[in-house]
From TrEMBL:
<keyword id="KW-0489">Methyltransferase</keyword>
<dbReference type="InterPro" id="IPR002052">
    <property type="entry name" value="DNA_methylase_N6_adenine_CS"/>
</dbReference>
<keyword id="KW-0694">RNA-binding</keyword>
<comment type="function">
    <text>Catalytic subunit of the TRMT11-TRM112 methyltransferase complex, that specifically mediates the S-adenosyl-L-methionine-dependent N(2)-methylation of guanosine nucleotide at position 10 (m2G10) in tRNAs. This is one of the major tRNA (guanine-N(2))-methyltransferases.</text>
</comment>
<keyword id="KW-0949">S-adenosyl-L-methionine</keyword>
<dbReference type="GO" id="GO:0160102">
    <property type="term" value="F:tRNA (guanine(10)-N2)-methyltransferase activity"/>
</dbReference>
<feature type="domain" description="tRNA (guanine(10)-N(2))-methyltransferase TRMT11 N-terminal">
    <location>
        <begin position="10"/>
        <end position="182"/>
    </location>
</feature>
<dbReference type="InterPro" id="IPR016691">
    <property type="entry name" value="TRMT11"/>
</dbReference>
<keyword id="KW-0820">tRNA-binding</keyword>
<comment type="subunit">
    <text>Part of the heterodimeric TRMT11-TRM112 methyltransferase complex; this complex forms an active tRNA methyltransferase, where TRMT112 acts as an activator of the catalytic subunit TRMT11.</text>
</comment>
<dbReference type="GO" id="GO:0005737">
    <property type="term" value="C:cytoplasm"/>
</dbReference>
<dbReference type="Pfam" id="PF25904">
    <property type="entry name" value="Tmrp11_N"/>
</dbReference>
<dbReference type="InterPro" id="IPR000241">
    <property type="entry name" value="RlmKL-like_Mtase"/>
</dbReference>
<keyword id="KW-0808">Transferase</keyword>
<dbReference type="GO" id="GO:0043527">
    <property type="term" value="C:tRNA methyltransferase complex"/>
</dbReference>
<keyword id="KW-0963">Cytoplasm</keyword>
<keyword id="KW-0819">tRNA processing</keyword>
Length: 467
């Protein structure tokens, strides 16, 4: 039950969206930590519930969270809650009159909404619920069109659509404070984006990644597998300076075949800079380069505040890196006798991830975050297969299912310390003695599963434009 001690220990009710459920807690935790606050769960906290009560935070904290979250729909100053109408009434009657006073004045206008989760109520029943709140000391006038204060009764009927109870499991009443940023999911949809590719990251997930990475104004953010720059779009929205690299010359230069239906070739201004211009964040564009992420091109030392990326997993695009004929199995004559001829080599997924972690360990600032997608074959998944690094702490690991047997996991890591010689030695030993190479066969496992299930082998069951 809510503790109504004083203004200082108010509680806030988050109403969360029910998509991307696993990504919500790390998002809210990351946004709270940007304010120097921790998530303090209540006794009956349920991670999959659409309602969470926030303790030990101020109204400024929740306003700042709502200014960024794409997982939460709205936040309310919680005035009371209970399992039954009488428990709710008792809880509301304990809410300090001083805290209510500014919002129930005679001169003020207000309205009360009713929101039900997992049940639809007819209009008559909604009115009944509002009438049952008549014990609240509202003195102002009801104004349905343009009220000064909005209140909401929120009822939770559980999450089983086949077993909806007559009465809610829990009821909350509070003053609406703010909505989250779910409008960004539509306003930044790749459907209406200027420059897109086959693997452009969905807008909602891009913003979630930027939030998990705690990207903030004036940060410098880097995407080593930048593609069409969807992640840079999200980071620049939060005022970070953005840059990236990609091995694909056409993608970086915005030329070649278009990905849109009914369009053969990319237009003259289809590039990442133009995407940022579309969302009025061009001032945060640093640059993008054609470069192979398996090669070190950056000076050693802390450079980036965040590294946020979606590496290729070889489904829609090959995982390639540059090499020389010395590394190739082809005979030297095939290269015309030249001493160094760059060739394209397979870039194994295990190497992509160990290179990425090593790069992050060297080039992130302390406290900076690496956020990336790890594809997994679900029957083989164990937490131990998530790549680790002695300088990076695993912050969160959230699954997004792609098919019955494959998924990708959004991994967030934070740099704890600079790389020392002992860390390099530990990594060499680790790669020698615990070489999980299962990542490398992801492509084969992905297609073998699809073939078994549906006979398809074109990757068409992928969601959200994943690679
Ligand atoms: C999954 S896509 C990234 C999509 C991107 N997030 C977007 O929204 O468009 C992976 C990208 O990695 C690039 N890539 C593949 N191998 C690479 C390498 N060795 N170095 C740099 N980029 C590489 C591919 O060209 C592709 O654009």
């Amino acid at each position: 039950m809510a503790l109504h001690c004083s203004r200082a220990c108010k509680q806030y009710l988050l109403h969360l969206a029910q998509d991307n459920i696993e990504f919500r807690l790390p998002e809210i935790k990351a946004l709270l930590s940007l304010r120097g606050k921790q998530f303090c769960p209540t006794e009956n906290f349920k991670e999959r519930s659409p309602f969470w009560v926030l303790n030990n935070v101020s109204e400024d904290d929740v306003l700042s969270i709502m200014g960024r979250t794409v997982c939460a729909k709205s936040v309310f100053e919680l005035w009371g809650h209970g399992r039954t109408p009488s428990e709710l009434q008792a809880s509301l009657q304990k809410y300090p009159a001083d805290d209510m006073a500014p919002f129930i004045q005679k001169e003020s206008t207000y309205k009360i909404n009713v929101y039900t989760f997992n049940k639809t109520l007819v209009f008559k029943d909604r009115i009944k619920k509002i009438d049952a709140l008549e014990f609240l000391p509202f003195q102002g006038k009801v104004n349905l069109k343009n009220p000064e204060h909005i209140f909401c009764l929120l009822e939770d009927y559980g999450s089983d659509p086949n077993n909806i109870p007559d009465e809610p499991f829990c009821v909350y009443f509070g003053r609406w404070i703010a909505d989250g940023q779910r409008v960004l999911i539509r306003s930044h949809s790749v459907k209406t984006r200027h420059f897109i590719g086959n693997t452009s990251m969905d807008a909602g997930l891009s913003f979630i990644m930027a939030n998990h990475a705690r990207v903030k104004a004036h940060d410098l953010v880097f995407d080593p597998f930048v593609g069409t720059g969807s992640l840079l779009v999200a980071c620049s929205h939060f005022g970070a300076y953005v840059c990236g690299t990609d091995i694909d010359y056409n993608t970086i230069h915005g030329i070649g075949k278009a990905s849109r239906k009914n369009q053969k070739w990319r237009g003259p201004d289809e590039n990442i800079r133009a995407n940022l211009r579309q969302y009025e964040t061009e001032q945060f564009y640093v640059d993008v380069l054609v470069s192979d992420s398996s090669k070190a091109i950056w000076r050693q030392g802390p450079l980036f505040d965040a590294i946020i990326t979606d590496p290729p997993y070889g489904i829609r695009e090959s995982t390639r890196r540059t090499g020389s004929q010395k590394e190739s199995s082809k005979p030297a004559e095939d290269f015309g006798g030249e001493s160094h001829v760059p060739v394209s080599m397979a870039y194994h997924l295990s190497d992509i991830f160990s290179d990425l972690l090593s790069f992050a360990a060297h080039c992130l600032v302390i406290g900076g975050r690496l956020v990336y997608w790890l594809p997994v074959y679900r029957p083989e998944y164990r937490e131990e297969i998530v790549p680790l690094h002695p300088c990076l702490r695993l912050v969160s690991n959230c699954e997004q299912t792609l098919s019955s047997h494959t998924s990708r996991r959004l991994i967030t890591m934070e740099k704890m310390k600079e790389v020392e010689d002992s860390d390099k030695q530990a990594l060499v030993l680790e790669s020698r003695f615990s070489p999980y190479q299962g990542h490398n066969a992801f492509r084969e496992k992905y297609f073998s599963g699809i073939t078994k299930r549906s006979g398809k082998s074109d990757g068409s069951t992928l969601v959200n434009g994943s690679d």
